[in-house]
Amino acid sequence: MEYTQLGRSGLSVSRLCLGTMNFGPETSEADSHTIMDRAHEHGINFFDTADVYGWQRGEGITENIIGRWFAQGGERREKTVLATKLYGDMGDWPNEKRLSALHIRRAADASLRRLQTDYIDLFQMHHVDRDTPWDEIWEAFSVLRQQGKVIYFGSSNFAGWHIAQAQEAARSRHFLGLVSEQSIYNLVNRFVELEVLPAARHYGVGVIPWSPLGGGLLGGVLRKQREGGAVRGNAGRSLEALEKHRDAVEAYEKLSADLGEDPANVGLAWLLHQEGVTAPIIGPRTADQLDGSLRSTEIVLDAEVLAKLDELFPAPGPNGAKPAPEAYAW
């Protein structure tokens, strides 16, 4: 496994991040523990979760599963760079969500209890809170750091100008600020290239892509359909996306086959070739899926292949692979 620094911090993380959103709803606790053990065997030290995962309000199901895995010992906690998130609705009362200083304090303490640890390596805002002043947020976060409960802070689903707001407010307080931004990013959805990626690069914020395979669209969906396997692209928005991009997906799967690679690993490898990307978040439901994803870290895509992928899945804006405003202006 290769490692890199998370943004401008000195923290070393694996080039793949283990996403745990399936733990509980899709994957049993026993299988979740097996996947986390297997991740450590492969050298993956970066795990991502959130207080809302498990999708039963206020229960923190996924965090509890991880906490019971940590409790088994064997240096599981010490070997893990643990990232969790707050913002989502965790109860019926008004201050059980978002980013008030009160909820930040309560959410951190609740996550620590569920995760059975005394510190969080990376505490991430799951969404921007347009109603809470940055001074309030950074003051609450600075208290958590002073208490030793959190080491680093990150964001998720921020626009580029939100990153700038956050960093400038942190700078005025002589605070490190954000070290990471977790955004949706894949070959099909490249909107972060307009402003989020440039802002993150400027401020030394590492980008952690979620949904790196576009909800399964880039995971060999057409091949799986032909083979009669269960695929995520058979219903709802996934089916609509497949119909919209069918020609590109078909050509993408053929290109992957010509390379002798699984389409899912090509999609992950493409992200690993993008400047500023720290680690795509993989969300395996089984240990075998985790094992298969390791190949993505070994794939080298040459300039010709990267150009072909740009043709199949163009960058946003009429002017090609450029940041804003050149992407749509001059």
Which terms would index this structure?
330 residues, two-stranded antiparallel sheet, globular, eight-stranded parallel beta sheet, 10 strands
How would you sum up this structure, described in words?
The strands form two sheets. Strands 9-8-7-6-5-4-3-10 form an eight-stranded parallel β-sheet, covered by helices on one side. The protein has 330 residues and is α/β, with parallel strands linked by helices. It is globular and about 55 Å long. The protein is 39% helix and 14% strand. Strand 8, helix 6 and strand 9 form a beta-alpha-beta unit. Helix 2 crosses helix 3, helix 3 packs parallel to helix 4 and helix 5 runs parallel beside helix 6. The relative contact order is 0.12. The mean pLDDT is 96. The chain is built from eleven helices and ten strands.
Biggest β-sheet description: 8 strands, parallel
**What fraction of residues sit in β-strands?**
5-15%
- Please write the string of helix (H) and strand (E) elements: EEEHEHEHEHEHEHEHHHEHH
Structural class: alpha/beta
Q: Nearest-angstrom radius of gyration?
A: 20 Å
Number of helices: 11
Number of strands: 10
pLDDT < 50 stretches: none
Q: What's the mean pLDDT score?
A: 96
Could you estimate the helical fraction of the residues in percent?
25-40%
Overall body shape: globular
**Through-space gap between termini:** 41 Å
Question: Strands of the largest sheet, in order across it?
Answer: 9-8-7-6-5-4-3-10
